[in-house]
């Protein structure tokens, strides 16, 4: 294999690994869920939380404390982000 083919294969594997990690946050069907503020990535929030938003996918920045993501019940406050832990209530900036 030449260097280009090896590099392309490495990029493909890295992309698949990233997708697997992102999908890992899904809970089994029927599992209890809770709203967790401050853990959603930009454009990946589940719904609105505050003025100027329309709903799901409206977060403009990562870990915005006014947007929430559904997570398995009982896990929110143990989710660590660069801004601290997840919260069951909106986080004011």
Question: What does it look like?
Answer:
The chain is of the alpha+beta class and 93 residues long. The chain has a domain at 28-85. 23% of the residues lie in helices and 15% in strands. The chain has one helix spanning 3-23; strands at residues 33-37, 68-72, 80-81, 84-85. A hairpin with a 2-residue loop joins strand 3 and strand 4. The protein starts with a helix and ends in an 8-residue tail after the last strand. Mean pLDDT is 76; it is low at 14-24.
Distance between the termini: 51 Å
Shape: globular
Task: Look at the helices and sheets and give the structural class.
Answer: alpha+beta
> Largest beta sheet: what is the strand line-up?
1-2
Strand content: 15-25%
The H-and-E topology, N to C, reads as: HEEEE
Which stretches of 5+ consecutive residues score pLDDT under 50?
A: 14-24
Please provide the count of β strands.
Answer: 4
Give the proportion of residues in helices. 10-25%
Oligomer state of the chains in this structure:
single chain
Largest sheet: 2 strands, antiparallel
**Mean pLDDT reading:** 76
Radius of gyration: 16 Å
Q: How many H/I helices?
A: 1
Tag the structure with descriptive keywords.
93 residues; 1 helix; 15% strand
Summarize the structure.
This protein is α+β, with helices and mostly antiparallel strands and about 90 residues long.
SSE topology sketch:
Elements: H1 3-23, E1 33-37, E2 68-72, E3 80-81, E4 84-85
Antiparallel strand pairs: 1-2, 3-4
């Amino acid at each position: 294999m030449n260097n280009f083919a090896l590099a392309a294969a490495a990029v493909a594997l890295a992309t698949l690994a990233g997708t697997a990690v992102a999908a890992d946050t899904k809970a089994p069907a029927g599992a209890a869920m809770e709203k967790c503020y401050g853990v959603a990535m930009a454009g990946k929030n589940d719904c609105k939380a505050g003025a100027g938003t329309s709903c799901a996918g409206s977060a403009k920045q990562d870990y915005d404390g006014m947007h929430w993501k559904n997570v398995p019940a009982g896990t929110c406050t143990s989710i660590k982000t660069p801004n601290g832990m997840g919260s069951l209530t909106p986080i004011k900036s």
